[in-house]
Protein backbone atom coordinates (compact mmCIF):
# COMPACT_ATOMS: atom_id res chain seq x y z
CA UNK A 1 0.00 0.00 0.00
CA UNK A 2 1.31 3.43 -0.92
CA UNK A 3 1.85 6.09 1.70
CA UNK A 4 -1.28 8.04 2.61
CA UNK A 5 -1.47 11.63 1.35
CA UNK A 6 -1.82 14.52 3.77
CA UNK A 7 -5.48 14.62 4.77
CA UNK A 8 -6.81 17.45 6.97
CA UNK A 9 -8.12 16.46 10.38
CA UNK A 10 -11.86 17.08 10.84
CA UNK A 11 -12.36 18.84 14.16
CA UNK A 12 -15.47 18.52 16.29
CA UNK A 13 -16.44 18.41 19.95
CA UNK A 14 -15.63 14.70 20.14
CA UNK A 15 -11.93 15.61 19.80
CA UNK A 16 -11.09 17.62 22.88
CA UNK A 17 -8.32 20.23 22.96
CA UNK A 18 -6.02 20.33 25.96
CA UNK A 19 -5.68 23.51 28.05
CA UNK A 20 -2.46 24.19 26.11
CA UNK A 21 -3.73 23.52 22.59
CA UNK A 22 -4.53 27.11 21.65
CA UNK A 23 -1.02 28.09 22.73
CA UNK A 24 0.46 25.38 20.48
CA UNK A 25 -1.55 26.74 17.55
CA UNK A 26 -0.20 30.22 18.26
CA UNK A 27 3.31 28.73 18.47
CA UNK A 28 2.97 27.33 14.93
CA UNK A 29 2.10 23.65 15.33
CA UNK A 30 2.13 22.07 11.85
CA UNK A 31 0.62 18.62 12.46
CA UNK A 32 -1.51 16.92 15.08
CA UNK A 33 -2.66 13.40 15.82
CA UNK A 34 -5.53 11.95 17.85
CA UNK A 35 -4.69 10.42 21.22
CA UNK A 36 -7.20 9.40 23.87
CA UNK A 37 -9.82 11.22 21.76
CA UNK A 38 -7.84 14.44 22.14
CA UNK A 39 -5.66 16.48 19.80
CA UNK A 40 -1.95 15.81 20.30
CA UNK A 41 0.58 18.15 18.62
CA UNK A 42 3.20 16.25 16.60
CA UNK A 43 5.42 18.73 14.73
CA UNK A 44 6.29 22.40 14.41
CA UNK A 45 8.32 24.24 11.77
CA UNK A 46 11.35 22.14 10.88
CA UNK A 47 9.52 18.87 11.49
CA UNK A 48 10.63 15.88 13.53
CA UNK A 49 14.35 16.51 12.98
CA UNK A 50 14.12 20.08 14.31
CA UNK A 51 12.26 18.71 17.34
CA UNK A 52 15.02 16.13 17.78
CA UNK A 53 17.72 18.81 17.87
CA UNK A 54 15.72 20.92 20.34
CA UNK A 55 15.23 18.07 22.79
CA UNK A 56 18.76 16.64 22.55
CA UNK A 57 20.64 19.95 22.61
CA UNK A 58 18.40 22.43 24.41
CA UNK A 59 14.92 22.33 25.94
CA UNK A 60 11.44 21.95 24.49
CA UNK A 61 7.89 22.11 25.83
CA UNK A 62 5.35 19.46 24.86
CA UNK A 63 1.59 19.64 25.15
CA UNK A 64 0.81 16.10 26.33
CA UNK A 65 -2.55 16.95 27.85
CA UNK A 66 -3.87 13.94 25.92
CA UNK A 67 -2.11 11.77 28.54
CA UNK A 68 -5.32 11.47 30.55
CA UNK A 69 -5.28 10.47 34.20
CA UNK A 70 -7.36 7.67 35.67
CA UNK A 71 -7.81 8.67 39.30
CA UNK A 72 -8.39 5.91 41.86
CA UNK A 73 -9.41 6.94 45.37
CA UNK A 74 -11.24 5.45 48.34
CA UNK A 75 -10.58 3.09 51.26
CA UNK A 76 -9.67 0.20 48.91
CA UNK A 77 -7.76 2.28 46.36
CA UNK A 78 -4.44 0.46 46.96
CA UNK A 79 -6.01 -2.99 46.69
CA UNK A 80 -7.86 -2.06 43.50
CA UNK A 81 -4.80 -0.45 41.90
CA UNK A 82 -2.81 -3.60 42.68
CA UNK A 83 -5.51 -5.63 40.94
CA UNK A 84 -4.98 -3.55 37.77
CA UNK A 85 -1.19 -3.17 37.47
CA UNK A 86 1.83 -5.46 37.29
CA UNK A 87 4.02 -3.60 39.80
CA UNK A 88 3.98 -4.24 43.54
CA UNK A 89 1.98 -1.26 44.76
CA UNK A 90 2.99 -1.85 48.39
CA UNK A 91 6.55 -0.81 47.49
CA UNK A 92 5.48 2.56 46.07
CA UNK A 93 5.47 5.39 48.61
CA UNK A 94 3.46 8.60 48.24
CA UNK A 95 5.44 11.02 46.09
CA UNK A 96 6.81 8.22 43.93
CA UNK A 97 5.91 7.15 40.41
CA UNK A 98 6.52 3.89 38.55
CA UNK A 99 6.28 2.79 34.95
CA UNK A 100 3.86 -0.13 34.93
CA UNK A 101 1.67 -2.29 32.72
CA UNK A 102 -2.03 -3.02 32.66
CA UNK A 103 -2.69 -6.49 31.26
CA UNK A 104 -5.67 -8.59 30.31
CA UNK A 105 -6.16 -12.12 31.71
CA UNK A 106 -4.02 -13.79 29.01
CA UNK A 107 -1.12 -11.40 29.72
CA UNK A 108 -1.67 -9.13 26.71
CA UNK A 109 -0.73 -5.49 27.31
CA UNK A 110 -3.69 -3.09 27.49
CA UNK A 111 -1.67 0.00 28.44
CA UNK A 112 1.70 1.05 29.86
CA UNK A 113 0.92 4.02 32.12
CA UNK A 114 3.02 5.83 34.66
CA UNK A 115 1.52 5.16 38.09
CA UNK A 116 1.72 8.06 40.57
CA UNK A 117 0.88 7.53 44.23
CA UNK A 118 -0.30 10.84 45.67
CA UNK A 119 -1.35 9.37 49.05
CA UNK A 120 -1.95 5.99 50.61
CA UNK A 121 -5.44 5.95 49.10
CA UNK A 122 -4.95 8.18 46.03
CA UNK A 123 -3.45 7.08 42.68
CA UNK A 124 -3.20 8.36 39.13
CA UNK A 125 -2.60 6.21 36.07
CA UNK A 126 -1.08 8.55 33.47
CA UNK A 127 -2.22 6.83 30.31
CA UNK A 128 -0.99 5.89 26.90
CA UNK A 129 -3.61 5.86 24.14
CA UNK A 130 -6.34 3.36 25.10
CA UNK A 131 -9.57 3.07 27.07
CA UNK A 132 -8.24 2.15 30.52
CA UNK A 133 -10.68 4.57 32.17
CA UNK A 134 -13.55 2.41 30.92
CA UNK A 135 -11.60 -0.82 31.63
CA UNK A 136 -11.03 0.25 35.24
CA UNK A 137 -14.69 1.14 35.70
CA UNK A 138 -15.70 -2.24 34.30
CA UNK A 139 -13.28 -4.13 36.54
CA UNK A 140 -14.57 -2.22 39.57
CA UNK A 141 -18.18 -3.34 39.00
CA UNK A 142 -17.58 -6.84 40.38
CA UNK A 143 -14.40 -6.23 42.37
CA UNK A 144 -16.20 -5.86 45.71
CA UNK A 145 -13.93 -2.96 46.67
CA UNK A 146 -14.77 0.54 47.90
CA UNK A 147 -13.18 2.75 45.23
CA UNK A 148 -14.03 5.77 43.13
CA UNK A 149 -12.68 5.96 39.58
CA UNK A 150 -12.68 9.27 37.78
CA UNK A 151 -10.87 11.43 35.23
CA UNK A 152 -9.76 14.54 37.14
CA UNK A 153 -9.03 18.03 35.83
CA UNK A 154 -5.34 17.23 35.33
CA UNK A 155 -3.39 18.01 32.16
CA UNK A 156 0.31 17.19 31.77
CA UNK A 157 2.86 19.29 29.94
CA UNK A 158 6.45 18.07 29.51
CA UNK A 159 9.65 20.13 29.70
CA UNK A 160 12.42 17.98 28.20
CA UNK A 161 16.08 18.33 27.25
CA UNK A 162 19.50 18.96 28.81
CA UNK A 163 18.59 22.58 29.66
CA UNK A 164 15.27 21.70 31.29
CA UNK A 165 16.66 21.85 34.86
CA UNK A 166 17.61 25.54 34.41
CA UNK A 167 14.10 26.39 33.23
CA UNK A 168 12.41 24.50 36.04
CA UNK A 169 14.68 26.01 38.72
CA UNK A 170 13.81 29.48 37.44
CA UNK A 171 10.16 28.69 38.07
CA UNK A 172 10.21 26.56 41.19
CA UNK A 173 13.54 27.13 42.94
CA UNK A 174 16.37 24.93 44.12
CA UNK A 175 14.14 22.22 45.61
CA UNK A 176 14.04 20.81 42.06
CA UNK A 177 17.58 19.52 42.71
CA UNK A 178 16.16 17.23 45.41
CA UNK A 179 13.62 15.65 43.07
CA UNK A 180 14.93 12.24 42.05
CA UNK A 181 14.06 10.30 38.94
CA UNK A 182 10.39 9.17 39.04
CA UNK A 183 9.68 11.31 42.08
CA UNK A 184 7.14 14.11 42.20
CA UNK A 185 5.87 16.90 44.45
CA UNK A 186 2.35 18.24 44.87
CA UNK A 187 2.89 22.00 44.76
CA UNK A 188 1.68 25.25 43.20
CA UNK A 189 2.97 28.14 41.12
CA UNK A 190 1.53 31.53 42.04
CA UNK A 191 -1.32 29.72 43.74
CA UNK A 192 -2.19 27.50 40.74
CA UNK A 193 -2.14 23.83 41.85
CA UNK A 194 0.05 21.33 40.03
CA UNK A 195 2.21 18.26 40.46
CA UNK A 196 5.84 18.46 39.30
CA UNK A 197 7.48 15.14 38.38
CA UNK A 198 10.90 14.02 37.15
CA UNK A 199 9.40 11.99 34.33
CA UNK A 200 9.20 12.16 30.55
CA UNK A 201 9.33 10.32 27.23
CA UNK A 202 12.42 11.80 25.61
CA UNK A 203 15.34 9.78 26.92
CA UNK A 204 16.77 13.12 28.06
CA UNK A 205 16.64 14.88 31.43
CA UNK A 206 13.11 16.16 31.78
CA UNK A 207 10.12 17.08 33.88
CA UNK A 208 6.38 16.82 33.68
CA UNK A 209 3.97 19.36 35.15
CA UNK A 210 0.50 17.99 35.85
CA UNK A 211 -1.64 21.14 35.77
CA UNK A 212 -4.62 20.81 38.14
CA UNK A 213 -6.59 23.78 36.79
CA UNK A 214 -7.67 23.53 33.17
CA UNK A 215 -8.32 27.27 32.95
CA UNK A 216 -4.63 28.08 33.41
CA UNK A 217 -3.14 26.43 30.31
CA UNK A 218 -2.20 29.60 28.42
CA UNK A 219 -0.84 31.15 31.61
CA UNK A 220 1.43 28.16 32.34
CA UNK A 221 2.64 28.00 28.73
CA UNK A 222 3.60 31.67 28.88
CA UNK A 223 5.34 31.26 32.23
CA UNK A 224 7.41 28.39 30.85
CA UNK A 225 8.51 30.37 27.80
CA UNK A 226 9.31 33.40 29.92
CA UNK A 227 11.53 31.29 32.19
CA UNK A 228 13.03 29.41 29.25
CA UNK A 229 13.77 32.39 27.01
CA UNK A 230 17.40 32.71 28.15
CA UNK A 231 17.88 28.98 27.44
CA UNK A 232 16.45 28.94 23.92
CA UNK A 233 13.27 27.11 24.86
CA UNK A 234 11.21 25.87 21.88
CA UNK A 235 7.76 24.35 21.35
CA UNK A 236 7.94 20.65 20.67
CA UNK A 237 6.14 17.33 20.91
CA UNK A 238 6.88 13.70 21.80
CA UNK A 239 9.72 12.98 19.41
CA UNK A 240 9.61 9.64 17.63
CA UNK A 241 13.30 9.72 16.70
CA UNK A 242 14.58 10.29 20.23
CA UNK A 243 12.19 7.89 21.92
CA UNK A 244 13.24 5.13 19.51
CA UNK A 245 16.95 5.78 20.10
CA UNK A 246 16.24 5.48 23.82
CA UNK A 247 14.28 2.24 23.45
CA UNK A 248 10.88 3.55 24.55
CA UNK A 249 7.72 1.75 23.45
CA UNK A 250 4.59 3.36 22.03
CA UNK A 251 1.41 1.51 22.94
CA UNK A 252 -0.75 0.98 19.86
CA UNK A 253 2.27 1.41 17.61
CA UNK A 254 4.82 -1.11 18.91
CA UNK A 255 2.57 -3.22 21.12
CA UNK A 256 -1.05 -3.86 21.98
CA UNK A 257 -3.21 -6.50 23.66
CA UNK A 258 -1.70 -9.18 21.37
CA UNK A 259 1.79 -8.80 22.89
CA UNK A 260 2.87 -9.73 26.41
CA UNK A 261 5.58 -8.04 28.52
CA UNK A 262 8.16 -10.77 27.99
CA UNK A 263 7.93 -10.45 24.22
CA UNK A 264 8.50 -6.71 24.58
CA UNK A 265 11.50 -7.01 26.94
CA UNK A 266 9.36 -5.47 29.70
CA UNK A 267 9.49 -8.39 32.13
CA UNK A 268 11.34 -6.31 34.73
CA UNK A 269 8.12 -4.31 35.16
CA UNK A 270 6.15 -7.42 36.19
CA UNK A 271 6.38 -8.19 39.91
CA UNK A 272 5.42 -11.86 40.00
CA UNK A 273 6.63 -12.09 43.61
CA UNK A 274 3.90 -9.80 44.96
CA UNK A 275 1.63 -11.58 47.42
CA UNK A 276 -1.45 -10.12 45.73
CA UNK A 277 -2.93 -11.20 42.44
CA UNK A 278 -3.29 -8.83 39.53
CA UNK A 279 -5.12 -9.35 36.25
CA UNK A 280 -2.93 -11.50 34.03
CA UNK A 281 -0.59 -12.74 36.78
CA UNK A 282 -1.36 -16.41 36.25
CA UNK A 283 -0.74 -16.22 32.51
CA UNK A 284 2.41 -14.13 32.92
CA UNK A 285 3.79 -16.57 35.49
CA UNK A 286 3.41 -19.35 32.93
CA UNK A 287 4.90 -17.29 30.07
CA UNK A 288 7.85 -16.31 32.27
CA UNK A 289 8.51 -19.97 33.11
CA UNK A 290 8.15 -21.25 29.53
CA UNK A 291 9.68 -18.24 27.79
CA UNK A 292 8.06 -16.20 25.01
CA UNK A 293 7.89 -17.50 21.44
CA UNK A 294 8.79 -14.15 19.91
CA UNK A 295 10.73 -11.08 20.99
CA UNK A 296 11.27 -7.44 20.13
CA UNK A 297 14.64 -6.56 18.59
CA UNK A 298 16.23 -3.55 16.93
CA UNK A 299 17.19 -3.23 13.29
CA UNK A 300 19.64 -1.12 11.34
CA UNK A 301 17.94 -0.65 7.96
CA UNK A 302 19.87 0.16 4.80
CA UNK A 303 19.00 2.74 2.18
CA UNK A 304 17.73 6.29 1.99
CA UNK A 305 16.29 7.95 5.10
CA UNK A 306 12.92 6.52 6.11
CA UNK A 307 10.54 9.45 6.33
CA UNK A 308 7.29 7.79 7.42
CA UNK A 309 6.39 5.32 10.15
CA UNK A 310 4.61 2.12 9.16
CA UNK A 311 0.89 2.65 8.71
CA UNK A 312 0.59 -1.13 8.72
CA UNK A 313 3.40 -3.27 10.15
CA UNK A 314 6.04 -4.18 7.55
CA UNK A 315 6.91 -7.89 7.06
CA UNK A 316 10.42 -9.05 7.93
CA UNK A 317 11.91 -12.06 6.14
CA UNK A 318 15.07 -14.13 6.55
CA UNK A 319 16.22 -16.20 3.58
CA UNK A 320 12.78 -15.74 2.05
CA UNK A 321 10.87 -16.93 5.16
CA UNK A 322 8.64 -14.44 7.00
CA UNK A 323 9.86 -14.26 10.60
CA UNK A 324 8.15 -11.16 12.01
CA UNK A 325 7.27 -7.53 11.37
CA UNK A 326 8.51 -3.96 11.86
CA UNK A 327 6.36 -1.76 14.13
CA UNK A 328 8.35 1.52 14.09
CA UNK A 329 11.08 2.92 11.87
CA UNK A 330 12.82 6.26 11.44
CA UNK A 331 15.93 8.03 10.22
CA UNK A 332 17.99 9.34 13.15
CA UNK A 333 20.27 12.32 12.45
CA UNK A 334 22.17 11.56 15.65
CA UNK A 335 23.23 8.13 14.40
CA UNK A 336 22.98 9.01 10.69
CA UNK A 337 21.15 5.81 9.83
CA UNK A 338 17.72 4.18 9.78
CA UNK A 339 16.64 2.34 12.90
CA UNK A 340 13.58 0.17 13.47
CA UNK A 341 11.80 -1.97 16.04
CA UNK A 342 10.75 -5.46 14.97
CA UNK A 343 9.07 -8.43 16.61
CA UNK A 344 10.43 -11.78 15.42
CA UNK A 345 10.44 -15.41 16.47
CA UNK A 346 12.87 -15.99 19.35
CA UNK A 347 15.05 -18.21 17.16
CA UNK A 348 15.82 -15.13 15.04
CA UNK A 349 16.24 -12.64 17.90
CA UNK A 350 20.01 -12.74 18.28
CA UNK A 351 22.18 -9.82 17.12
CA UNK A 352 23.82 -9.45 13.68
CA UNK A 353 21.22 -11.47 11.77
CA UNK A 354 20.75 -10.39 8.15
CA UNK A 355 17.08 -9.87 7.25
CA UNK A 356 14.93 -8.04 4.72
CA UNK A 357 12.28 -5.42 5.51
CA UNK A 358 9.40 -5.19 3.04
CA UNK A 359 8.00 -1.67 2.88
CA UNK A 360 5.19 -0.80 0.44
CA UNK A 361 6.90 -0.86 -2.97
CA UNK A 362 10.35 -1.25 -1.45
CA UNK A 363 12.50 -3.99 0.12
CA UNK A 364 15.46 -3.03 2.32
CA UNK A 365 18.30 -5.10 3.76
CA UNK A 366 18.70 -4.85 7.52
CA UNK A 367 20.66 -6.35 10.40
CA UNK A 368 19.38 -7.09 13.89
CA UNK A 369 20.77 -5.31 16.94
CA UNK A 370 19.96 -4.67 20.59
CA UNK A 371 17.69 -1.98 22.06
CA UNK A 372 18.22 0.78 23.16
CA UNK A 373 20.22 2.11 20.26
CA UNK A 374 21.59 4.96 22.43
CA UNK A 375 21.89 4.96 26.21
CA UNK A 376 19.20 7.28 27.65
CA UNK A 377 20.40 10.34 29.54
CA UNK A 378 17.27 10.91 31.65
CA UNK A 379 19.02 10.27 34.97
CA UNK A 380 21.71 12.90 34.38
CA UNK A 381 20.04 15.88 36.06
Description:
By secondary structure, the chain is of the alpha+beta class. The protein has 3 domains: about 20-65 and about 155-245, Gyrase A, domain 2; about 70-150, Alpha-Beta Plaits (2-Layer Sandwich), CATH 3.30.70.1400; about 295-380, Elongation Factor Tu (Ef-tu), domain 3, CATH 2.40.30. It contains 8 helices and 21 strands. The chain has helices spanning about 20-25, 45-55, 75-85, 130-140, 165-170, 215-230, 240-245, 280-290; strands spanning about 30-35, 40-45, 60-65, 70-75, 95-100, 100-105, 110, 115-120, 120-125, 150, 155-160, 185-190, 190-195, 205-210, 235, 295-300, 315-320, 320-330, 335-345, 355-360, 360-370. It has a 6-stranded mixed β-sheet with strand order 12-13-14-11-3-15. Helix 5 (about 165-170) packs across helix 6. It is globular, with a radius of gyration of 21 Å. It starts with 20 loop residues before the first helix and ends in a 12-residue tail after the last strand. The model has no long low-confidence stretch (mean pLDDT about 95).
Question: What would the keywords be for this entry?
Answer:
381 residues; alpha+beta; Gyrase A, domain 2; Alpha-Beta Plaits; Elongation Factor Tu (Ef-tu), domain 3; six-stranded mixed sheet; six-stranded antiparallel β-barrel; 8 helices; 21 strands; globular
Q: Quick one: CATH superfamily of the largest domain?
A: Probable tRNA modification gtpase trme, domain 1
Structural class: alpha+beta
Strand order of the largest sheet: 12-13-14-11-3-15
Strand content: 25-35%
Share in helix: 10-25%
Level-1 CATH class name of the largest domain: Alpha Beta
Tell me which CATH architecture of the largest domain applies here.
Answer: 2-Layer Sandwich
What general form does the structure show?
A: globular
Give the beta-strand count: 21
**SS summary, helix count:** 8
CA-based gyration radius = 21 Å
At CATH level 3, the topology of the largest domain is Gyrase A, domain 2
> Largest sheet at a glance?
6 strands, mixed
Poorly predicted residue ranges: none
Give the H and E element order.
HEEHEEHEEEEEHEEHEEEHEHHEEEEEE
Write down the overall mean pLDDT: 95
